[in-house]
């Protein structure tokens, strides 16, 4: 996303980058068609997937808009908490019970996020606003993940790849309509920054194509894991993804953007959040063995 932003394609009102994102996600339907499973869901059972897609669209829009304002390192810290939010929501929506140690680990994650918020506020209103957007997007993503498990594994039992594809197609329809109505009439919001950044259109198209391909792989893997191991364990993988972003953002982008740089506060925040996530995993595994 930082590369897309640097190329001039990151206007948060046009959201052109959301088109390849949902295009890649919708292509996971090919995995469903090529799979060995012959299970077919009824049309009425497919309606929840389109509703969950609305949650996902809002979450992703907030996450990426916040990422462009706050930087990848802050995004990594805040988004690492998605596991904990998924755990809390699975307690509320899926009726999973949490013990005392699990709740303490959740509290530690909140402390890490609070520390990140204080650091972001000291970096200016733009970074702080981005942090708030990422936090809201993370919570909404956890809602989306939990509801996706609910309709894929329980209740309607929609096949995972079909669920992913339907959510992607819903996103393509809504975002595509936005491109035809708003972006087309405000194209200078895209063309102007692209020209200022000195980016060529073949390069921009290659970036968007890479985004589509990466989200095809991401969505296919995520929904497969969601069906096999559940929302909380899948959230752990998402948290580790955030750690990787945190590690790479400093060496790759610190010289271009100060918000991407490592700082002791960010490091401590990430350590607290990841420790809380690992403590939650440990408490959960001990409870399952008991």
From TrEMBL:
InterPro entries: EmrE-like. The chain crosses the membrane at residues 15-33, 40-58, 70-94, 101-121, 127-148, 160-180, 200-217, 229-253, 265-283. It comes from the Eukaryota. GO terms for cellular component: membrane. Keywords: Membrane, Transmembrane, Transmembrane helix. The keyword Transmembrane applies. Coiled coil: none annotated. The keyword Cell inner membrane does not apply. This is EamA domain-containing protein. The lineage of its organism: Eukaryota, Sar, Alveolata, Dinophyceae, Suessiales.
């Amino acid at each position: 996303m930082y590369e897309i932003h640097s190329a001039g394609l990151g206007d948060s009102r046009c959201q052109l980058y959301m088109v390849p994102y949902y295009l890649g996600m919708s292509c996971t339907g090919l995995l469903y068609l090529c799979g060995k499973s012959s299970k077919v869901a009824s049309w009425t059972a497919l309606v929840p997937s389109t509703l969950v897609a609305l949650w996902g669209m809002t979450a992703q829009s907030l996450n990426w808009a916040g990422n462009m304002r706050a930087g990848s390192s802050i995004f990594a810290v805040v988004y690492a908490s998605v596991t904990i939010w998924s755990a809390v929501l699975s307690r509320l929506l899926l009726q999973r019970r949490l013990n005392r140690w699990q709740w303490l680990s959740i509290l530690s994650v909140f402390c890490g996020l609070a520390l990140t918020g204080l650091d972001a506020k000291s970096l200016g209103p733009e970074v702080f606003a981005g942090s708030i957007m990422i936090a809201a997007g993370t919570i909404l993503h956890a809602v989306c993940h939990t509801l996706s498990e609910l309709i894929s594994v329980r209740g309607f039992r929609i096949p995972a790849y079909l669920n992913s594809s339907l959510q992607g197609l819903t996103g393509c329809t809504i975002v595509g309509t936005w491109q035809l109505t708003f972006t087309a009439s405000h194209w200078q919001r895209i063309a102007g920054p692209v020209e200022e950044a000195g980016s060529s259109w073949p390069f921009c198209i290659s970036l968007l194509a890479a985004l589509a391909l990466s989200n095809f792989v991401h969505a296919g893997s995520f929904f497969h894991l969601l069906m096999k191991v559940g929302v909380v364990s899948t959230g752990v993988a998402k948290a580790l993804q955030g750690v990787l972003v945190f590690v790479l953002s400093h060496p790759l982008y610190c010289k271009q953007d100060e918000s991407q740089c490592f700082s002791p506060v960010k490091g401590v925040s990430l350590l607290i959040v990841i420790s809380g996530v690992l403590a939650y995993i440990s408490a959960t595994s001990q409870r399952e063995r008991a």
